[in-house]
Amino acid sequence: MKRISFFVILCVATLLNACKEDLGPYKEVTRAYSLDTFSKLTMESGLRVDVQPGNNFSITARGNEEDVNDLVLTVRQGVLYANYKNSRRRNRYDTFIMITMPAIRAVNFSGAVHATITGFLTMNELDIELSGASKTDYKGNVNLVKSVLSGASTLTMTGEGKKLVSELSGASQLEAYDYPADEADLDVSGASEVRIRINDMLKVKASGASKVRYRGNPQKYIDVSGASIVVQE
């Protein structure tokens, strides 16, 4: 029996190794893209994205030559899209995209994108949608931030604002202790977690073993079910 078990394990390991794609040698290249007139971003496929403000548009990609050659960037109706032509290829080196843009209104990151957005200090509204284990670090000031986080995604915020509206599901996280706001309206489900600092008013609907931890002394409107908790720290 032990010999059979060992043989089965060996076969499975061999098959898994055979399924892994050979990344091949790494040859770094940098490529610039002449695209402009966009204020929204939609990106996927594990890209590493850095976004900063500037008077002019600038886009640069850095990574392995084969991956950069496979990268497609287009602008449609004010949205900059970035993905790979060969979407079936899963094993890649990290590809880094550096973006400078005058203003940012919305982002939609999916498929394990890791993004950093810094330096936008005087914005009225920003919409953030993350899915598929994507992560975004935001540093700046916005009057209103609306976010939808799903599929074990994480949004970390630093700065300050007036209002946060956020919907979380599927074990997602919102880290906003370092982003004090006047108001927050949260819908949290599926074992998701929120850490937030609120001054005036906090509305929470929490279900499915979710956790909301808050700092400050706001007026509270709490609707909790299914082993969820809302705790002041």
Give an account of the 3D structure.
Helices cover 10% and strands 59% of the residues. It is mainly β and 233 residues long. It has a single domain (23-232), classed as Pectate Lyase C-like (3 Solenoid). The protein has a 16-stranded mixed beta sheet that branches. The chain is globular, with a radius of gyration of 21 Å. Residues 38-218 form the Putative auto-transporter adhesin head GIN domain. Pfam families: DUF2807.
Please tell me the total number of domains: 1
**End-to-end separation:** 55 Å
CATH architecture: 3 Solenoid
Approximately how much beta-strand content do the residues carry?
over 45%
Task: State the name of the first-level CATH class.
Answer: Mainly Beta
Largest sheet: 16 strands, mixed
What is the N-to-C succession of helices and strands? HEEEEHEEEEEEEEEEEE
Structural class of the helices, strands and pairings?
Answer: mainly beta
DSSP helical segment count: 2
Number of strands: 16
Radius of gyration of CA atoms, rounded to a whole number:
21 Å
Provide the CATH topology.
Answer: Pectate Lyase C-like
Helical content, roughly?
10-25%
How would you state the average pLDDT, rounded?
92
Domain Putative auto-transporter adhesin head GIN: 38-218
Pfam family, one: DUF2807
Protein name: DUF2807 domain-containing protein
InterPro entries: DUF2807 (IPR021255)
